[in-house]
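Inputs:
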Amino acid sequence: MAEKNIPYKIHLTEEEMPRAWYNVRADMKTDHRPILNPGTLKPVTADDLRPVFCDELVSQELNDRDRFIEIPGPVLDFYRMYRPSPLVRAYFLEKELKTPAKIYYKYEGGNTSGSHKLNSAIAQAYYAKAQALKGVTTETGAGQWGTALSMACGYFGLDCRVFMVKVSAEQKPYRKAVMETYGATVTASPSDTTQVGRKILAETPNTTGSLGCAISEAVEAAVTSDGYRYVLGSVLNQVLIHQSIIGLEAKAALSKYGEYPDVVIGCAGGGSNLGGLMAPFMADKLAGSASPRFIAVEPASCPSLTRGRFAYDFCDTGKVTPLAKMYTLGSSFIPASNHAGGLRYHGMSPILSQLYHDGYLDEARAVGQVSVFEAAGLFARVEGLLPAPESAHAIRVAIDEARACAETGEAKTILFGLTGTGYFDMAAYIQYNGGVMEDYIPTDEDLKRGFDGIPELPGVE
Amino acid sequence: MAEKNIPYKIHLTEEEMPRAWYNVRADMKTDHRPILNPGTLKPVTADDLRPVFCDELVSQELNDRDRFIEIPGPVLDFYRMYRPSPLVRAYFLEKELKTPAKIYYKYEGGNTSGSHKLNSAIAQAYYAKAQALKGVTTETGAGQWGTALSMACGYFGLDCRVFMVKVSAEQKPYRKAVMETYGATVTASPSDTTQVGRKILAETPNTTGSLGCAISEAVEAAVTSDGYRYVLGSVLNQVLIHQSIIGLEAKAALSKYGEYPDVVIGCAGGGSNLGGLMAPFMADKLAGSASPRFIAVEPASCPSLTRGRFAYDFCDTGKVTPLAKMYTLGSSFIPASNHAGGLRYHGMSPILSQLYHDGYLDEARAVGQVSVFEAAGLFARVEGLLPAPESAHAIRVAIDEARACAETGEAKTILFGLTGTGYFDMAAYIQYNGGVMEDYIPTDEDLKRGFDGIPELPGVE
């Protein structure tokens, strides 16, 4: 059923794997507003960040000049375990939808961490090892990032302490077990092991946790432990740099067959997946050489781009991090227990926020989880891959776009990111299969409570 | 770290994917003894089998002439979703073991069913669909076969009824959920939905079930339902034919780099994985053109090759199936609740049994599950893949062989089958990580009880 000899799966060779990550920030027309020290309201310096992040990652975080950053040899070696990842032509889905659209997805779930998160985890673990640290701390939502970091730390022999959002830890005991198999220590967050965790528990004893809470705990654990640094799986510039490998490979694979996307679709929680997938295509758009349409898909339960404010805000619930100018629902906003745990973040990558604000990231679309699981089930049946709920957000919109093409007769080329598998999300599938899944859509009143927590910063724009 | 430009993963192109399966039986020096009708003790005929199996699969089951059988187009189309599967050079494991051996593994876990079982499931579902049947029934142990069949039936729109060994159904609720996501009906076995199930429950109310029991129930459900046939994921000749694609691809991938295995290792429950992996190499051995060493690895808790008898026996506990000459522990033998549910079968493929009896399958080795999980954990850490407990049996012996090479300095080429992932086996990993896993080794008395149930057939050899 293949056309023009385009195979179902396009594999790059290991020699064709990119040797450098791409830093979109160097090409942005307007850089994102600087990250601010909440005490001084001045831009954070490398010195401010070094107690929290590894030195090299601090450099990457602040790097607004270098378009490309060389991938270290040991990271390339590890990448060969699971990269280049396949770019799949979704022939079966196209047939099912009777669409003239050509649908491609970059499949990042074929490694044991089950998601794209490993691309940045191994880089961050490598830099920590190179700096002779003892270990790292982090938070995890759905568990994908924590699993990836556990694998990376297990490989380099680093200690790994993971704060896992409580609702995910409860829904996904086996995720925890995978992390422990790789030698990590997993703590449900909020916990009583940190000051900030105890404070949050005192204020909201029944909270199911959030990425924002878990970040606060992980940062505290890092800065109060000798030889540890904090690492983060999304939101940060450094993570978008590492994840650019998704888009670079996708672009190279498409170009082998003379293809280029009209539409690029990714789920967006903190923004690392979409940021990575769209990076090289965004480069073309910024350079004026192509004009793909970018769509960020977020859960209706946590609609930071579609209903949030573009404002300076804390990156965590405990307000221990610097302030970032981003689309935010307020750092105190705790989303309902939607099953896409990886998308339950109150803010959005400053890079993506700026690109959205400036119109380069064309559209954000919020979708309810019931329609997301409907898309996931259809996709699983016809394409043979059981997607993670996060990834199924992108699938939902890719299907909608392809169906629109069936209406109009347009043969658009659609590219979306299939970030991970749903093997550890079966509790959610059971709920959907049983017909008892509900959508959670925050009311304006819910949002107002979150917005009320956004700091007022006189004189700062 | 790659040598001789052999990449970490060798991908065949879709054009290089085999177009025909290989039937080792056509090349065997001594065919296996015929399957007998238990009533007449005469060889079963196609007419005997047609009420149970699809017509085309009956032909394949009895086919001892055709060396190659063409893969139908719709099956090839489906194969493209996840095949050719990668052949991986285990550079990281070699380094960890400081071995001069070259280790390769054929990785069959990269599809949503999580194992090699999909190779036969889609073929069997296709033939059922082509015969215009309503649906199929089957049993599943670890859940890999049931998941694969559910996917295949979901793809072709066939009804799928799965009897799942009770201990697995209890250990793996999420496996059940995946099957249900693909539209299958899953029943824990023994159940009260069949006569044979009710009988087994009456005799042994506390049984945790076995593949043998579940087969009896599935066969009964098929032959008593209009428009249904029974399908099986291992043991049968037809399944070994379909699984030959594993070995055919592995051989083609190795030959691209001038490589050929000295040792071929596979876990063996019913024998489909090892049978498929070794098939084209066995062809060379039978033709006298090469002499690779074949090792079957089985659990110490269910040692059909290493401690069983080569005798005619029933393929199921309920004694509703024909009699096969094979290595068997007796159809009434119910193994301890070892975590490798897919290897808990009392018998062994008649083809593999005959090849072992005749010395072409060189060696069988029984290993305890504690040492198996030790190997699994090591492999997961250094190779980045979390293996299924079944697959980890092969990993255990591959590591032992590679370590022996480190002692002797021999640079053997070792090929093993990595049949599946362990994402649905985390309860077992939790037990191992917690240090509370035990080995189950049947006593001679345990075995004697099983042997006592092997039928005495005067005049039949």
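Chain B has 18 helices and 15 strands. Flag for discussion at group meeting.
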